[in-house]
Amino acid sequence: MAAARSGRLSLTARFSASVALVIVACAMLYLAWLSLTSDAFMQDKALAEARTLNVEMKAAWAYIDQVQDAINYDSTGRFDFKGVYCSVAGKDIAQKFTAQSEGYVIRYARDNPRSSTDQPDEFESKAIELFEATEETERFGMEDRGGESFFRYVSRIDISRNCLACHGEPAGEYDLTGFRKEGMQMGDLAGVTSISIPMSRYEGEMSARTAQSLAFFLCLTAAVVAVVRLMLRRWVTAPLMQANAQLKNENEAKSNILAMVSHELRTPLSSIMAYADILASSPNVRTEEEKGYVEEIKESGMVLLDMVNNVIDTARFEAGRFEFVEEEVDLVDVVEIVRAAVEPAASRKGVSLSFGIEREMPIVRSDSQALRIVLANLLGNAVKFTDEGGSVELSAHYDRSEGRLSVAVSDTGCGIPEHELARVFDRFVQADAARERNAMGSGLGLALSKSLVTALGGSISVESVVGCGSRFDFVVPAPSVEEASEEEA
Fold first, then answer.
1. What Å distances lie between residue 21 and 24, 26, 190, CA to CA?
2. Mean of the pLDDT values across residues 78-107?
3. What is the DSSP string of 176-193?
4. Beta strand 352-357 pairing with 391-399
5. Full DSSP string of 261-326
6. What is the DSSP letter of 237?
7. Taking the CA atoms of the chain, what radius of gyration do you get in angstroms?
8. Is the per-residue pLDDT at 133 higher than 70?
9. Can you say whether the dihedral through the CA atoms of 168, 169, 172, 177 is positive or negative?
10. Stretch 444-468: mean pLDDT, rounded?
11. Distance between CA atoms of 372 and 383, rounded to whole angstroms?
12. Is residue 194 over pLDDT 90?
C-alpha cells in the first residue's frame, strides 16, 4: 500500500512538474506574442486618433474659410478686414489644443513659410517631398525623442478657392495680410498638418491590458490543469496503480512458482537421474527388459529435466533475473559440455552426431551460459526430431573482420512445414510434424534460444523442408580476446 501511494505521488509530482513547465513555456510564448503585436496595436490606435484629429482640424479650417466673407464684411456690405482667416484660426485652435493636451502637438508647416513657426522639421520635410512627388495624402511613423516615443502623422493641405486671395496670382503682389502672393493655383500643395502623439498613455494601457490578459490566461490554464489532473487521477492513475498492484502480485506468484519448480521439481529429478545412473552401472545381472526400463527412466528424466530447465530459464529471462556476464569463452569447451549431455540420447536413437568447428576458432568474449543453453536446445531438438539412422551436425565459424560468431545446427529429421516456420520461435509452439510424432517438449526451447540470441545482439533463423530436415543458424557479436586486448592497449 505504501509503495502504491509512493508511486501515485511520484506520478502526480511528475505530472505537476511537467504541467508547470508547459504553463511557464506557454506563458512566455504568450508574452512574446503580446509584445510583438502590442506595438502594431498601439500604432493602429494612434493612427486612428491622429486621423480623427486631422479631420476635426480640417473641419475647423473649412468653417473659417466658409464664413470668411461674413467676418470681413459688415452689415452694409463694406469690406472690413478683421485679421481672422483660415491659417490664423487653424493655428490658434491647434495651439489651444496642444496647451490643453499633455504631450500632444498640432501644428502647420510648409516650404518657404511666412512665419518661422511654420518651418518644417525633418519628418515634415520628407512628407512634403512625398506629397509633391506623388498623390499620397498622409505620412506617419514612430519617432524617439529623448527616450520617449511619439507617433508622427502628417497630412496634406491643398489650395482651395478662398486660399487664392492670399496665395494665388499674380505672384509678388501683396495680399490683405501684407505678404507677397506665391502665385499658386487650385489643387497645389499649400502645406501640411503635423500631429505628434505621445505613446506613453498607450503604453500604460497596453501594460494593463497585457497584465489582465496574462492573469486571465493563467486562471484559465489553472482551471484546465485542475480538470485534467482530476481526470488523470480518476481514469489513468488509479487504473495504473491497480494494474501495477496486480502485476506485482502476479510477479510474486511467478517468483513463487519459479522457486517451487526449481526446488521441488528439479532437485527430485536430479536425484532420479542419479539413481538411474547407479542402476545402469550396477554389477547385478538384469534382463534386457529391466535394462530397457532403466534407460527409459533416464531418458524420460532427462526430457523432464530439460523441460524444467527451459521453464526456469524462460521465467528468469522474462522477470529480468537472467544475468548476462561477458567473459572469455572457448566455444570448443561449451560444445563439449553440450555434446556430453546430448550424446547419450543420440546413441539410444541411433542418430550420428558430428561437430565441425574451425581449427583456428579464437577465444571470444561472450556469455558462456547463454551460448550453452542455445546450443543445448538446438542440438536437443535436432536429435529429438531425427529418426534412427539420421544425422545431426553442428558447425561453427568465426568472422574476424566483423567480430561475429556463426553457428549452424542441421539435421535430417522430419522437417517443419513452410506455414509453421514463421511461428517456430513462438512460445508453446511445436510444428505439426513434431506433434504427429508425439514428441515431448515444453515448447519453450526455441523461444528461449531466440530471446537469448537477441539479448546478445545477434539473430537466429531457420530453413526446413518436410521429410528432409532442418537447419538453424544464429549469429552473435563476439570480439576475440586478442582484438579486445589490442583495442584496450
1. 5, 9, 61
2. 82
3. TTS-B-----TT-EEEEE
4. parallel
5. IIIIIIHHHHHHHHHHHHHHT--S---HHHHHHHHHHHHHHHHHHHHHHHHHHHHHHHTT------
6. I
7. 50
8. yes
9. negative
10. 91
11. 16
12. yes
